[in-house]
Design brief:
This protein is 61% helix and 15% strand. With 429 residues, the protein is of the alpha+beta class. A hairpin with a 2-residue loop joins strand 2 and strand 3. Helix 7 crosses helix 8, helix 8 runs antiparallel to helix 9 and helix 9 packs antiparallel against helix 10. The longest helix has 165 residues. The radius of gyration is 68 Å and the shape is rod-shaped.
Length: 429
Amino acid sequence: MAELFLAIVACDAEIGDMELHCAVALGSGYRRSRVPMPFEECLRAWQVPHIFSVCTIAILFGETGLGNISVPIMRLGRCKDSTLDEWFPVEPSSTVRLRLLLHLRSESGGAAPASFERLCSELLGKAGKPSPQTGQAEGAIHHAEPKVTRSDLGHSNPKPASPTSPASPASPASPTATSPERAKDLARKEDKVPNLQEREPDFAASLQELHRLCQSMLPSETPPPPRGPLPVDDEASPSKDNVYDEARAQLLSQKEALERESTELNTHWAALQEDQATKHEVLAEMRVERLSIFATVEELQTEVEDATTELKEAQAVASSRLATRRRLQAELLACSADFGDEAAEQRRASEALRRKRALLRSEAVELGRELQCCVSRGDALVSENLQLRTESAAVEEAEDGRFQFPRCNENGLQSIQGCEIGKKDGNCG
Protein backbone atom coordinates (compact mmCIF):
# COMPACT_ATOMS: atom_id res chain seq x y z
CA MET A 1 0.00 0.00 0.00
CA ALA A 2 1.26 3.48 -0.86
CA GLU A 3 1.98 6.15 1.75
CA LEU A 4 1.50 9.92 1.62
CA PHE A 5 3.50 12.42 3.65
CA LEU A 6 1.71 15.76 4.03
CA ALA A 7 2.95 18.97 5.63
CA ILE A 8 1.24 22.38 5.78
CA VAL A 9 4.17 24.76 6.20
CA ALA A 10 2.64 28.18 5.48
CA CYS A 11 -0.64 30.04 4.98
CA ASP A 12 -1.18 33.13 2.87
CA ALA A 13 -4.12 34.83 4.64
CA GLU A 14 -4.76 38.01 6.64
CA ILE A 15 -6.04 36.66 9.95
CA GLY A 16 -4.15 38.78 12.44
CA ASP A 17 -3.18 36.99 15.65
CA MET A 18 -5.82 34.30 15.27
CA GLU A 19 -4.66 30.78 14.60
CA LEU A 20 -5.87 28.55 11.83
CA HIS A 21 -6.62 24.88 12.25
CA CYS A 22 -7.04 22.21 9.64
CA ALA A 23 -8.87 18.91 9.35
CA VAL A 24 -7.29 16.39 6.97
CA ALA A 25 -9.21 13.38 5.63
CA LEU A 26 -7.83 10.63 3.39
CA GLY A 27 -9.74 7.40 2.96
CA SER A 28 -10.76 6.26 6.47
CA GLY A 29 -8.07 8.39 8.16
CA TYR A 30 -8.88 11.70 9.83
CA ARG A 31 -6.67 14.15 11.78
CA ARG A 32 -6.85 17.68 13.12
CA SER A 33 -3.91 20.00 13.56
CA ARG A 34 -2.95 23.64 13.57
CA VAL A 35 -1.49 25.67 10.69
CA PRO A 36 1.43 25.41 10.18
CA MET A 37 1.68 21.78 11.22
CA PRO A 38 4.05 20.72 13.99
CA PHE A 39 7.17 18.99 12.80
CA GLU A 40 6.19 15.68 14.42
CA GLU A 41 2.79 15.73 12.69
CA CYS A 42 4.46 16.24 9.32
CA LEU A 43 6.47 13.02 9.67
CA ARG A 44 3.39 10.85 10.20
CA ALA A 45 2.43 8.84 7.12
CA TRP A 46 -1.03 8.56 5.59
CA GLN A 47 -2.13 5.20 4.20
CA VAL A 48 -3.45 5.58 0.64
CA PRO A 49 -6.18 2.96 -0.02
CA HIS A 50 -6.02 3.28 -3.82
CA ILE A 51 -4.82 5.58 -6.58
CA PHE A 52 -8.28 7.15 -7.06
CA SER A 53 -8.39 8.56 -3.52
CA VAL A 54 -8.59 12.29 -2.79
CA CYS A 55 -6.92 14.00 0.15
CA THR A 56 -9.20 16.75 1.50
CA ILE A 57 -7.98 19.53 3.80
CA ALA A 58 -10.56 21.75 5.56
CA ILE A 59 -9.34 25.11 6.91
CA LEU A 60 -10.98 26.26 10.15
CA PHE A 61 -10.81 29.85 11.48
CA GLY A 62 -11.94 29.31 15.02
CA GLU A 63 -15.26 27.53 14.51
CA THR A 64 -15.82 28.96 11.02
CA GLY A 65 -14.82 27.04 7.92
CA LEU A 66 -12.85 29.07 5.37
CA GLY A 67 -12.92 26.41 2.68
CA ASN A 68 -11.15 23.25 1.69
CA ILE A 69 -8.44 21.92 -0.60
CA SER A 70 -8.71 18.70 -2.60
CA VAL A 71 -5.55 16.94 -3.74
CA PRO A 72 -6.16 13.93 -6.05
CA ILE A 73 -3.72 11.10 -5.42
CA MET A 74 -3.73 10.33 -9.15
CA ARG A 75 -2.04 13.68 -9.75
CA LEU A 76 0.69 12.82 -7.23
CA GLY A 77 1.18 9.43 -8.85
CA ARG A 78 2.81 11.11 -11.87
CA CYS A 79 5.71 12.34 -9.69
CA LYS A 80 5.94 9.42 -7.30
CA ASP A 81 8.86 9.17 -4.83
CA SER A 82 9.60 12.89 -5.10
CA THR A 83 8.76 15.82 -2.84
CA LEU A 84 6.43 18.53 -4.22
CA ASP A 85 6.40 22.08 -2.83
CA GLU A 86 3.34 23.95 -4.13
CA TRP A 87 0.80 26.62 -3.17
CA PHE A 88 -2.83 25.47 -3.28
CA PRO A 89 -5.80 27.90 -3.28
CA VAL A 90 -8.53 27.35 -0.71
CA GLU A 91 -11.97 27.03 -2.26
CA PRO A 92 -14.33 28.92 -2.27
CA SER A 93 -12.11 31.63 -0.77
CA SER A 94 -9.87 33.28 -3.37
CA THR A 95 -7.58 35.11 -0.92
CA VAL A 96 -6.34 32.18 1.16
CA ARG A 97 -3.59 29.88 -0.01
CA LEU A 98 -1.72 27.06 1.69
CA ARG A 99 1.81 25.93 1.03
CA LEU A 100 1.91 22.13 1.06
CA LEU A 101 4.74 19.64 0.98
CA LEU A 102 3.59 16.36 -0.59
CA HIS A 103 5.52 13.13 -1.00
CA LEU A 104 3.88 9.94 -2.33
CA ARG A 105 5.84 6.76 -1.64
CA SER A 106 4.99 3.53 -3.41
CA GLU A 107 6.09 1.30 -0.53
CA SER A 108 4.86 1.44 3.05
CA GLY A 109 6.91 1.28 6.23
CA GLY A 110 10.13 2.91 7.25
CA ALA A 111 11.02 6.45 8.18
CA ALA A 112 9.98 9.57 6.35
CA PRO A 113 11.86 10.38 3.11
CA ALA A 114 15.04 12.36 3.63
CA SER A 115 14.14 15.07 1.11
CA PHE A 116 10.71 15.59 2.67
CA GLU A 117 12.13 15.72 6.20
CA ARG A 118 14.85 18.17 5.14
CA LEU A 119 12.35 20.53 3.45
CA CYS A 120 10.04 20.34 6.46
CA SER A 121 12.85 21.21 8.86
CA GLU A 122 14.03 24.08 6.64
CA LEU A 123 10.59 25.60 6.00
CA LEU A 124 9.28 25.15 9.51
CA GLY A 125 12.54 26.54 10.85
CA LYS A 126 12.23 29.59 8.57
CA ALA A 127 8.56 30.02 9.48
CA GLY A 128 9.42 29.79 13.17
CA LYS A 129 8.25 27.16 15.64
CA PRO A 130 5.76 28.22 18.32
CA SER A 131 7.32 29.46 21.51
CA PRO A 132 6.74 27.72 24.88
CA GLN A 133 4.35 30.52 25.98
CA THR A 134 2.35 30.11 22.79
CA GLY A 135 2.33 26.36 23.25
CA GLN A 136 1.08 26.75 26.83
CA ALA A 137 -1.63 29.14 25.67
CA GLU A 138 -2.66 26.72 22.97
CA GLY A 139 -2.72 23.92 25.51
CA ALA A 140 -4.91 26.02 27.78
CA ILE A 141 -7.25 26.81 24.91
CA HIS A 142 -7.48 23.18 23.86
CA HIS A 143 -8.00 22.18 27.47
CA ALA A 144 -10.76 24.74 27.82
CA GLU A 145 -12.60 23.45 24.77
CA PRO A 146 -15.34 20.98 25.71
CA LYS A 147 -14.63 17.50 24.43
CA VAL A 148 -17.90 16.10 23.14
CA THR A 149 -17.91 12.65 21.64
CA ARG A 150 -20.57 10.93 19.60
CA SER A 151 -21.53 8.80 22.60
CA ASP A 152 -22.18 11.98 24.61
CA LEU A 153 -24.42 13.31 21.87
CA GLY A 154 -26.64 10.28 22.12
CA HIS A 155 -27.75 11.10 25.74
CA SER A 156 -30.88 13.17 26.05
CA ASN A 157 -30.18 14.28 29.64
CA PRO A 158 -26.84 16.10 29.81
CA LYS A 159 -25.10 16.29 33.14
CA PRO A 160 -24.72 19.76 34.62
CA ALA A 161 -21.21 21.10 34.52
CA SER A 162 -19.35 21.69 37.72
CA PRO A 163 -19.21 25.27 38.97
CA THR A 164 -15.42 25.34 38.76
CA SER A 165 -15.21 23.99 35.21
CA PRO A 166 -13.83 26.44 32.64
CA ALA A 167 -16.34 25.14 30.12
CA SER A 168 -19.26 26.48 32.15
CA PRO A 169 -19.73 30.11 31.14
CA ALA A 170 -22.51 30.63 33.71
CA SER A 171 -21.44 30.12 37.33
CA PRO A 172 -22.44 31.67 40.62
CA ALA A 173 -19.32 33.80 40.57
CA SER A 174 -20.23 35.26 37.18
CA PRO A 175 -23.24 37.53 37.62
CA THR A 176 -22.86 38.86 34.10
CA ALA A 177 -23.74 35.50 32.55
CA THR A 178 -27.11 36.88 31.38
CA SER A 179 -25.68 40.07 29.96
CA PRO A 180 -26.86 41.49 26.56
CA GLU A 181 -23.61 40.31 24.90
CA ARG A 182 -24.37 36.77 26.00
CA ALA A 183 -27.90 37.08 24.62
CA LYS A 184 -26.58 38.39 21.31
CA ASP A 185 -24.04 35.57 21.19
CA LEU A 186 -26.78 33.02 21.79
CA ALA A 187 -28.99 34.61 19.14
CA ARG A 188 -26.10 34.67 16.66
CA LYS A 189 -25.34 31.02 17.33
CA GLU A 190 -28.99 30.10 17.02
CA ASP A 191 -29.12 31.88 13.66
CA LYS A 192 -26.67 29.30 12.33
CA VAL A 193 -29.26 26.54 12.59
CA PRO A 194 -31.09 27.41 9.29
CA ASN A 195 -27.79 27.31 7.43
CA LEU A 196 -27.05 23.93 8.94
CA GLN A 197 -30.51 22.81 7.92
CA GLU A 198 -29.82 23.84 4.37
CA ARG A 199 -26.45 22.06 4.32
CA GLU A 200 -27.29 18.94 6.32
CA PRO A 201 -31.00 18.03 6.82
CA ASP A 202 -30.19 14.98 8.94
CA PHE A 203 -27.99 16.98 11.27
CA ALA A 204 -30.68 19.70 11.59
CA ALA A 205 -33.30 17.09 12.42
CA SER A 206 -30.98 15.58 15.04
CA LEU A 207 -30.38 19.03 16.53
CA GLN A 208 -34.11 19.78 16.67
CA GLU A 209 -34.74 16.43 18.31
CA LEU A 210 -32.07 17.19 20.90
CA HIS A 211 -33.61 20.61 21.55
CA ARG A 212 -37.06 19.06 21.94
CA LEU A 213 -35.74 16.52 24.43
CA CYS A 214 -34.04 19.25 26.42
CA GLN A 215 -37.25 21.28 26.46
CA SER A 216 -39.25 18.26 27.54
CA MET A 217 -36.80 17.75 30.39
CA LEU A 218 -37.88 21.08 31.95
CA PRO A 219 -41.23 21.19 33.82
CA SER A 220 -43.94 22.83 31.76
CA GLU A 221 -45.45 24.79 34.67
CA THR A 222 -42.11 26.36 35.60
CA PRO A 223 -41.86 29.91 34.20
CA PRO A 224 -38.68 30.88 32.33
CA PRO A 225 -35.93 32.33 34.52
CA PRO A 226 -35.90 36.10 34.77
CA ARG A 227 -33.46 37.92 32.49
CA GLY A 228 -33.12 41.01 34.65
CA PRO A 229 -31.66 41.46 38.15
CA LEU A 230 -33.04 38.93 40.62
CA PRO A 231 -34.93 40.01 43.73
CA VAL A 232 -33.02 39.65 46.98
CA ASP A 233 -35.88 38.23 49.02
CA ASP A 234 -36.32 35.19 46.62
CA GLU A 235 -33.79 32.55 47.69
CA ALA A 236 -34.70 29.87 45.08
CA SER A 237 -34.39 32.05 41.98
CA PRO A 238 -30.54 32.27 41.81
CA SER A 239 -30.12 28.50 42.03
CA LYS A 240 -32.76 27.88 39.37
CA ASP A 241 -31.19 30.50 37.10
CA ASN A 242 -27.80 28.90 37.67
CA VAL A 243 -29.16 25.47 36.75
CA TYR A 244 -30.80 26.82 33.60
CA ASP A 245 -27.67 28.72 32.59
CA GLU A 246 -25.52 25.64 33.14
CA ALA A 247 -27.89 23.52 31.08
CA ARG A 248 -27.97 26.17 28.36
CA ALA A 249 -24.16 26.40 28.40
CA GLN A 250 -23.90 22.63 28.15
CA LEU A 251 -26.34 22.62 25.24
CA LEU A 252 -24.45 25.44 23.54
CA SER A 253 -21.14 23.60 23.98
CA GLN A 254 -22.75 20.48 22.54
CA LYS A 255 -24.15 22.59 19.71
CA GLU A 256 -20.70 24.02 18.97
CA ALA A 257 -19.23 20.53 19.05
CA LEU A 258 -21.97 19.36 16.70
CA GLU A 259 -21.31 22.29 14.39
CA ARG A 260 -17.60 21.53 14.40
CA GLU A 261 -18.22 17.86 13.78
CA SER A 262 -20.75 18.77 11.08
CA THR A 263 -18.11 20.92 9.36
CA GLU A 264 -15.64 18.07 9.52
CA LEU A 265 -18.21 15.57 8.31
CA ASN A 266 -19.23 17.89 5.47
CA THR A 267 -15.58 18.24 4.52
CA HIS A 268 -15.12 14.50 4.62
CA TRP A 269 -18.38 14.05 2.69
CA ALA A 270 -17.20 16.53 0.03
CA ALA A 271 -13.93 14.61 -0.20
CA LEU A 272 -15.83 11.35 -0.58
CA GLN A 273 -18.09 12.90 -3.22
CA GLU A 274 -15.09 14.22 -5.12
CA ASP A 275 -13.43 10.84 -4.76
CA GLN A 276 -16.58 9.16 -6.05
CA ALA A 277 -16.84 11.65 -8.93
CA THR A 278 -13.22 10.96 -9.80
CA LYS A 279 -13.92 7.24 -9.66
CA HIS A 280 -16.99 7.67 -11.88
CA GLU A 281 -14.95 9.66 -14.38
CA VAL A 282 -12.20 7.05 -14.33
CA LEU A 283 -14.78 4.28 -14.67
CA ALA A 284 -16.41 6.12 -17.59
CA GLU A 285 -13.02 6.51 -19.24
CA MET A 286 -12.25 2.86 -18.54
CA ARG A 287 -15.65 1.88 -19.97
CA VAL A 288 -14.98 3.88 -23.13
CA GLU A 289 -11.51 2.38 -23.34
CA ARG A 290 -12.97 -1.08 -22.77
CA LEU A 291 -15.51 -0.56 -25.57
CA SER A 292 -12.77 0.67 -27.86
CA ILE A 293 -10.62 -2.29 -26.83
CA PHE A 294 -13.52 -4.67 -27.52
CA ALA A 295 -14.03 -3.07 -30.94
CA THR A 296 -10.32 -3.35 -31.61
CA VAL A 297 -10.36 -6.97 -30.44
CA GLU A 298 -13.28 -7.75 -32.75
CA GLU A 299 -11.49 -6.10 -35.65
CA LEU A 300 -8.33 -8.01 -34.81
CA GLN A 301 -10.32 -11.23 -34.49
CA THR A 302 -11.87 -10.62 -37.92
CA GLU A 303 -8.43 -9.90 -39.32
CA VAL A 304 -7.11 -13.07 -37.66
CA GLU A 305 -9.93 -15.11 -39.18
CA ASP A 306 -9.27 -13.60 -42.61
CA ALA A 307 -5.57 -14.21 -42.18
CA THR A 308 -6.31 -17.80 -41.08
CA THR A 309 -8.43 -18.36 -44.19
CA GLU A 310 -5.72 -16.88 -46.39
CA LEU A 311 -3.14 -18.99 -44.58
CA LYS A 312 -5.18 -22.14 -45.15
CA GLU A 313 -5.52 -21.28 -48.85
CA ALA A 314 -1.82 -20.54 -49.05
CA GLN A 315 -1.10 -23.84 -47.28
CA ALA A 316 -3.29 -25.71 -49.79
CA VAL A 317 -1.55 -23.99 -52.71
CA ALA A 318 1.82 -24.67 -51.11
CA SER A 319 0.90 -28.33 -50.60
CA SER A 320 -0.13 -28.71 -54.24
CA ARG A 321 3.02 -26.93 -55.34
CA LEU A 322 5.08 -29.14 -53.06
CA ALA A 323 3.49 -32.27 -54.55
CA THR A 324 4.11 -30.92 -58.05
CA ARG A 325 7.69 -30.08 -57.16
CA ARG A 326 8.29 -33.54 -55.72
CA ARG A 327 6.78 -35.12 -58.84
CA LEU A 328 8.98 -32.91 -61.03
CA GLN A 329 11.96 -33.82 -58.86
CA ALA A 330 11.20 -37.52 -59.37
CA GLU A 331 10.83 -36.96 -63.11
CA LEU A 332 14.03 -34.95 -63.11
CA LEU A 333 15.84 -37.74 -61.30
CA ALA A 334 14.49 -40.26 -63.84
CA CYS A 335 15.45 -37.99 -66.73
CA SER A 336 18.85 -37.46 -65.17
CA ALA A 337 19.32 -41.21 -64.90
CA ASP A 338 18.19 -41.69 -68.52
CA PHE A 339 20.41 -38.84 -69.61
CA GLY A 340 23.32 -40.37 -67.75
CA ASP A 341 22.70 -43.73 -69.38
CA GLU A 342 22.37 -42.11 -72.80
CA ALA A 343 25.49 -40.04 -72.20
CA ALA A 344 27.38 -43.17 -71.15
CA GLU A 345 26.11 -44.93 -74.27
CA GLN A 346 27.15 -41.97 -76.41
CA ARG A 347 30.52 -41.92 -74.70
CA ARG A 348 30.92 -45.61 -75.39
CA ALA A 349 29.84 -45.11 -79.03
CA SER A 350 32.18 -42.16 -79.46
CA GLU A 351 34.97 -44.19 -77.91
CA ALA A 352 34.25 -47.02 -80.35
CA LEU A 353 34.14 -44.53 -83.24
CA ARG A 354 37.38 -43.01 -82.03
CA ARG A 355 38.98 -46.46 -82.01
CA LYS A 356 37.56 -47.18 -85.46
CA ARG A 357 38.85 -43.84 -86.71
CA ALA A 358 42.25 -44.62 -85.28
CA LEU A 359 42.19 -47.98 -87.02
CA LEU A 360 41.07 -46.38 -90.29
CA ARG A 361 43.76 -43.73 -89.90
CA SER A 362 46.36 -46.41 -89.41
CA GLU A 363 44.98 -48.34 -92.37
CA ALA A 364 44.99 -45.16 -94.47
CA VAL A 365 48.59 -44.56 -93.47
CA GLU A 366 49.46 -48.10 -94.48
CA LEU A 367 47.55 -47.69 -97.73
CA GLY A 368 49.34 -44.40 -98.34
CA ARG A 369 52.61 -46.09 -97.79
CA GLU A 370 51.64 -48.91 -100.15
CA LEU A 371 50.42 -46.34 -102.69
CA GLN A 372 53.70 -44.53 -102.39
CA CYS A 373 55.53 -47.81 -102.97
CA CYS A 374 53.31 -48.52 -105.97
CA VAL A 375 53.92 -45.02 -107.32
CA SER A 376 57.63 -45.39 -106.88
CA ARG A 377 57.43 -48.81 -108.56
CA GLY A 378 55.37 -47.31 -111.39
CA ASP A 379 57.94 -44.53 -111.76
CA ALA A 380 60.64 -47.14 -111.91
CA LEU A 381 58.65 -49.05 -114.51
CA VAL A 382 58.07 -45.88 -116.55
CA SER A 383 61.74 -45.03 -116.45
CA GLU A 384 62.54 -48.57 -117.36
CA ASN A 385 59.98 -48.39 -120.19
CA LEU A 386 61.53 -45.19 -121.45
CA GLN A 387 64.89 -46.75 -121.35
CA LEU A 388 63.60 -49.77 -123.18
CA ARG A 389 61.91 -47.59 -125.74
CA THR A 390 65.09 -45.64 -126.23
CA GLU A 391 66.99 -48.81 -126.67
CA SER A 392 64.35 -50.22 -128.97
CA ALA A 393 64.38 -47.04 -130.99
CA ALA A 394 68.08 -47.25 -131.35
CA VAL A 395 67.79 -50.89 -132.39
CA GLU A 396 65.07 -50.04 -134.85
CA GLU A 397 67.08 -47.31 -136.43
CA ALA A 398 69.94 -49.70 -136.74
CA GLU A 399 67.87 -52.32 -138.36
CA ASP A 400 65.77 -49.91 -140.36
CA GLY A 401 67.92 -50.09 -143.25
CA ARG A 402 68.01 -53.78 -143.38
CA PHE A 403 64.59 -54.73 -143.09
CA GLN A 404 62.10 -52.11 -144.08
CA PHE A 405 59.13 -54.35 -144.02
CA PRO A 406 59.79 -55.64 -140.60
CA ARG A 407 60.23 -52.01 -139.57
CA CYS A 408 56.62 -51.29 -140.26
CA ASN A 409 55.63 -54.19 -138.13
CA GLU A 410 57.83 -52.95 -135.35
CA ASN A 411 56.35 -49.49 -135.58
CA GLY A 412 52.92 -50.98 -135.18
CA LEU A 413 54.06 -52.99 -132.23
CA GLN A 414 55.65 -49.95 -130.64
CA SER A 415 52.52 -47.93 -131.10
CA ILE A 416 50.50 -50.69 -129.48
CA GLN A 417 52.96 -50.86 -126.57
CA GLY A 418 52.90 -47.08 -126.22
CA CYS A 419 49.09 -47.16 -126.01
CA GLU A 420 49.17 -49.77 -123.30
CA ILE A 421 51.71 -47.79 -121.32
CA GLY A 422 49.64 -44.65 -121.83
CA LYS A 423 46.58 -46.41 -120.49
CA LYS A 424 48.50 -47.33 -117.39
CA ASP A 425 49.66 -43.75 -116.96
CA GLY A 426 46.32 -42.26 -118.03
CA ASN A 427 47.78 -40.43 -121.06
CA CYS A 428 46.59 -42.62 -123.83
CA GLY A 429 45.75 -40.59 -126.88
